[in-house]
């Protein structure tokens, strides 16, 4: 069993990739907030992006190592850009990003502790 190349780790990696792309898109929306007639762009839902890239986890298929977010993962809306709403959404995205990174960090620390104990370090 490969601890750092399993489907859960890859799924977390895909989510972080998606969140990063979403943050960049929201930053672009904020930059265009004062442009008359500018409408917001959104990322497709995470599940849709996974399906589009053939990265949905399943028992039968090998895990996709990397997804590359592109224009096909972005949806143009007819909604005007609200700087306040974009900022609020970006804050939510940052919180989720930090929570995932904290989980990964804690997992790696646990593995490190277990390995040091198995080598007589504890």
Compact overview of the structure:
The protein has 122 residues and is mainly alpha-helical. It has helices at 7-31, 46-52, 83-118; strands spanning 39-43, 74-80. The radius of gyration is 18 Å and the shape is elongated.
Topology:
Blueprint: H1 7-31, E1 39-43, H2 46-52, E2 74-80, H3 83-118
Antiparallel strand pairs: 1-2
Helix pairs in contact: 1-3
List keywords for this structure.
mainly alpha, 122 residues, two-stranded antiparallel sheet, elongated, 3 helices
Notes on the structure:
It is a single chain. The protein has 122 residues and is mainly α. It has one domain (7-118). Helix content is 56%, strand content 10%. The protein has three helices and two strands; from the N terminus they run αβαβα. The protein has a two-stranded antiparallel ribbon with strand order 1-2. The model has no long low-confidence stretch (mean pLDDT 89).
Order of helices and strands: HEHEH
* Whole-number total of structural domains: 1
Main β-sheet description? 2 strands, antiparallel
Silhouette: elongated
- Residue fraction in strands: 5-15%
| Fraction in helix | 55-70%
Strand order of the largest sheet: 1-2
Class inferred from helices and paired strands: mainly alpha
Q: How many strand segments?
A: 2
CA radius of gyration is 18 Å
Average pLDDT, to the nearest integer? 89
Instruction: Point out poorly predicted stretches.
Output: none
Q: N- to C-terminal separation?
A: 24 Å
**How many separate helices?**
3
């Amino acid at each position: 069993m490969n601890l750092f190349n399993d489907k859960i780790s890859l799924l977390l990696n895909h989510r972080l990739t998606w969140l990063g792309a979403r943050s960049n898109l929201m930053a672009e929306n904020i930059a265009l907030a004062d442009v008359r007639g500018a409408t917001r762009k959104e990322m497709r839902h995470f599940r849709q992006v996974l399906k589009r890239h053939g990265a949905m986890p399943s028992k039968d298929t090998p895990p996709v190592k990397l997804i590359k977010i592109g224009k096909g993962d972005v949806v143009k809306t007819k909604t005007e850009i609200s700087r306040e709403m974009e900022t609020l959404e970006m804050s939510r995205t940052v919180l989720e990003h930090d929570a995932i990174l904290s989980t990964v960090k804690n997992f790696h620390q646990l593995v490190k502790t277990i390995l040091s104990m198995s080598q007589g370090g504890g």
